[in-house]
Amino acid sequence: MLARSLRSLPVLTFAASLFFAAPLVVAEEASGVDFDRQIRPILSRNCFQCHGPDEHARQAGLRLDLKSGALAGGDSGEATIVPGDPAASELVLRINATDDDVVMPPPDANNQPTAEEKALIARWIGEGAAWEPHWAFVAPRRPALPDVKRTDWTRDELDRFVLARLERERTAPSAEADRRTLLRRVTFDLTGLPPTPQEVADFLADESPQAYEKVVDRLLATTRYAERMTLEWLDAARYADTHGYHEDYHRDMWPWRDWVIQAFNENMPFDQFATEQIAGDLIPNRTNRQLVATGFCRNHGITASGISEEYRVEYALDRARTTATVFLGLTMGCAQCHDHKYDPISQRDFYRFFAYFNTVSDRGVENGEGNMRPRAPVVPQRMQSKLDQDRQRAAELKAQLAAKRDEAVARMASWEAGLGDRKNWQPNVSDGLAVHVDFDTLSDGQVAVTGSDAASANVAHIAVEGAAVTFEGQDGAAFKFDGTTRITSDLARLNRAASFSLAAWVRPEGDAVILGRTNEAESYRGYDLVIDGGRLSLRLASAWTINAVGVLAKDKLPLGEWSHIVATYDGSGLARGVKLYVNGERQEVEARYDRLKGDFEVDMPLEIGHRHGKFGFRGGMDDLRIYRRAISATEVQQLAGRDPIGPLLAIAPDERTEKQSAALREYYLAHVDPNYGSIQAEHRRLEQSVREEIARLPSVMVMDEMKDPRDTFVLVRGQYDQHGERVEVGTPDVLPPLAEDAPQNRLGLARWLVDPSHPLTSRVTVNRLWQIAFGTGLVKTSEDFGIQGERPSHPELLDYLSIEFVESGWDVKAMMKRLVMSATYRQSSVASREQMRSDPENRLLGRGPRYRLPAEMIRDNALFVSGLLVEKIGGPSVKPYQPPGLWVEISNRGYVQDKGEKLYRRSMYTYWKRAVPPPNLAALDAPNRETCTVRRQRTNTPLMALVLLNDPTFVEASRALAERVMLEGDASTEARIAGLYRRVLAREPLEVEGQILGRIFARQLDVYQNDESAAKELLSVGESPRNGELDLAEHAAWTCVASTVLNLDEAVSKE
After folding, report:
1. DSSP 8-state code for residue 495
2. 56, 452, 710, 949: least buried by Cβ within 10 Å?
3. Over the stretch 572-604, which tens digit does the pLDDT of each residue have?
4. pTM as predicted
5. CA of residue 412 relative to chain centroid, distance
6. Which residues sit opposite 621 in a β-bridge?
7. What letter does residue 372 receive in the DSSP assignment?
8. What topology does CATH give the domain 433-642?
9. In the predicted model, is pLDDT for residue 624 greater than 50?
């Protein structure tokens, strides 16, 4: 039907009538129709789905999102648009057709243009069909300041843009808000908390012209400002304390949150702020802080089950989508499966952008708790210098070792000559020997023990529980275990960062524990060396199996025969850091688990031959040794009696092969030469000290570029395993290209994003800063600056602020100050009937912002005014009150509520479980943080009031607030109601308000005087102690009044 010509007279007549009527419909557009503002939205909404950027969905060969496509026409051969001649334009004919088989859009389409829109299209074509690129894809240009009549009203140049629009609309700005309202508004906006009564009094008393500016400067200088700004960024970065998906395991990304707080506190320039989070790991000579910043890219969810590659791809997709939303304001993810339906972003564009994030060495499925690799320790500044010194010293020692090798080799000949009869030479493996039980000495149910740990603890013998029987072993006496016998001590406390070796001769009769220190009650936290399925296994667990390393030899140990076993660990926390040996031969191993993130040090005794009264060892054991280092393969062979050095010494030096000479030389350097050996020992101790220091630090998941980047392909229909065209990294064609000398990685991408000429980043960022201050951005759809997004209400103002922002050095704090200092911001939020009729959403900015506070601010406000808020900065997330059983419904792990001050921290520190977000905050529209959110939804449901009235946090806050006003002095009802209003609303109550609350107090006092148990029940909510000197019924009644005030619409709104 699209090919069918529409040259029928009725249609022509109707189209012509629309064209000639158009000036009457849009008479106010004297300057002509604006394509980008008026026409493109109509085409996008009604036509682009079938005739837009997506070539796979495009019908009839017609493309209307490009000028060339619209002028060329489609398969019908008719001219879709004939500039200057709407009557000859197929577009006008089709949208006005009355035949259902011909009209476009089809009758069953979701969207249909209105009569006014059809007329506007006809008029635009009649004016010549001027075509402009989408405003957001053109770099901002500094506009001229508009002329305005009321110059006395403006306080900042930005006000002139607002006032000019108001004057064009023949309306006026609102009067300035009263000082109390303004102080409460700006204090919430800049700190997320209300002003104190004293701060209100001080502001009212300061009559200087700079009074308000002094308040703004004071607020911007507080750490509260940094916390408030961070809250917005946590939504955008989809921060949470769990992995999400099925198991929703715990993670520790709070150090990244602390980095954000510190960045805002230091007023880090936004271009640096963005660059470090996207590519801090790639910055030359990057610091630990810059590496931590890349946690932004790792805040996505992580699954515990599924197809690993599928989810690895999903994580990279998430990074690409999030980066595009946060910094570009584009819905680029819509091009994951096909070309974007509306914006000029092809699927190929998307996967070139995706390629920047597809070269990280992470895995898809991670079935465990904690932070997944790649991860990095978070090094405090006070420790960084010491670590740097230790690393420098370790590097110096390593250089000394290399320099002394040649010197030591010359002394080796003298050592050999002094050995005499090589057959009598005995190896010595004693360096680092912490525990040695040779089982040769048994008396009074105890066996002798030696080694550095025993000496430090002043222990010479350890007790045997059960039968103590010895027999002839491999080297003197051996100990016989019958499955019930065990030997315990408090020796060999080992940890994740410390290298160690476990060695013994064993003659097992079946599976059993050889030795270990574990705690069954802590998910088998600890370490143990076991025989599992006949095979030697070393297990290191912070929590078995979700936070552990488990390595198993592939070959079985012979039963009833002596075997020498050794397990070494290098302190890396990795399965590859474990080596197993049997009879001196290194074993091929299977890494069953390789996700150790926490420590495995445990407050339980060392047990030999048993574990918690279970898995008893049956058979013989001899010469048990524990070293506080990973012994070498040569030393392992020596302990196994194989002595690879003695036979080498028996070979004349000139007859040895190069391999034999090298092996002997390495042994001599490590164990004989005093200079080399002492330096090597110091180097080893220093490296272990550094590892142990780092192991005690918190970690954060970070970005880590692969040395050999994986290939990236366009994924057909977005399917992870359906590879299409291979692509390289790149940015969308509709946007400016990277600089020619830019690195082709995330660092190049980050620098491209913050290039001053970039059309989007500064606009998107300034828009969200405006959204913080005014509740709605100049572009309302702050997540979508594309063609389907809403155009800016004040486009010249947005461009002006964007350029000012960049020229200020991307100074966020300076921009926030400009916004809140403006006359636009300071207007009263009281709306007249005319304003509500003509501009219900305040898009003209003719009045001040008024809307419900974010969930976190509502909770923090209650804690703050009640005196309960604990203002501690940063640290791990906390678990305040929550209805019991919620977590168990979703996962198998219950919620363990915190105690003490952790119950009263700011809400931004509340533990965020993706599957079960904090219920009181979720009820108040907090997002679940599963995906990036840059604009919260605001709803209004009865559930919100129920939370404010019944949630323990708010009931306890009401009790504490009541207590504060009862203890302030004046005991009159009127004074206490005034005290409540001053703390909660920063104003005095109206007479009628005082009367209503007075009646509520009297009624509730009567209730509680006649029902002491009800009063006790109410006042027992919450863990903070109640002042027992206050009258029970009176305190309960005032608690009800305080709750009423905290529930007022004004209390939970920014006025």
Report:
1. -
2. 56
3. 999 999 999 999 999 999 999 998 888 999 999
4. 0.86
5. 56
6. 479, 506
7. P
8. Jelly Rolls (2.60.120)
9. yes
Q: Can you point out the beta strands (E) in 474-597?
A: 477-482, 486-489, 500-508, 512-519, 525-532, 535-543, 547-556, 563-569, 578-582, 585-586, 589-594
- For residue 473, give both structure tokens: 């072993």
Does position 12 have pLDDT exceeding 60, yes or no? no
Beta strands in 346-445 (DSSP E): 375-377, 433-437, 442-443
Domain boundaries, the chain: 9-132, 224-377+709-838, 433-642, 950-1054
CA distance readout (Å), 721 to 300, 311, 318, 355, 732: 21, 11, 17, 15, 23
| 422 band by pLDDT with thresholds 50, 70 and 90 | low
Q: Is 404 within 8 Å of 676 (Cβ atoms)? A: yes
Fill in the DSSP letter of residue 705: B
Q: What integer pLDDT is reported at residue 110 of this predicted model?
A: 82
> Which amino acid, one-letter code, is at 846?
G
Greatest Cα pair distance, the chain, in angstroms, is 120
Q: How many residues does the chain have?
A: 1055
Neighbours of 1007 (CB within 10 A): 15
Neighbours of 106 (CB within 10 A): 12
Cross-strand partners of 446: 443, 463
* Bridge partners, residue 563, by sequence: 506
Please tell me the distance from the alpha carbon of residue 170 to that of residue 155, in angstroms, as a whole number.
Answer: 21
Q: How far apart are CA 480 and CA 487, in angstroms?
A: 12
179 and 203 Cβ atoms separated by less than 8 Å: yes
What percent of the residues of the chain are helix, what percent strand, and what percent coil, each to the nearest 5? 45, 15, 45
Q: Would you say residue 5 has pLDDT above 50?
A: no
Q: Where are the alpha helices (DSSP H) in 280-380?
A: 288-293, 308-323, 347-355
Residue 848 has φ and ψ, to the nearest 5°, of -75, 165
Closest CA to 589 of 539, 632, 551: 551
The reported pLDDT for the residue numbered 15 is: 40
Q: Where does residue 60 fall: left (phi above 0), alpha (psi -120 to 50 degrees), or beta otherwise?
A: left
Partners of residue 360 on adjacent β-strands: 705
How many whole angstroms separate alpha carbon 92 and alpha carbon 85? 10
Smallest Cα–Cα separation from 965: which of 954, 975, 953, 956?
Answer: 975
- Cα separation, 126 vs 805, in Å, equals 40
Distances 245 to 242, 893, 894, 931, 977 between C-alpha atoms, Å: 9, 14, 17, 12, 48
Q: Is 609:487 a contact under the CB 8 Å cutoff? A: yes
At 537 the three-state DSSP class reads: strand
d(CA 456, CA 576): 31
The encoded tokens of residue 884 equal 């019991």
Number of C-beta neighbours around residue 176 at 10 A: 17
Q: Report how far Cα 43 is from the mean position of its chain's Cα atoms.
A: 38
Whole-angstrom Cα distance, residue 912 to residue 7?
63
Q: Which residue has the higher pLDDT, 27 or 546?
A: 546
Q: Which residues pair with 701 in a beta bridge?
A: 375
- Strand-pair partners of 176: 827
- The HSE-up count of residue 95 (CA atoms within 13 Å, CB side) is 27
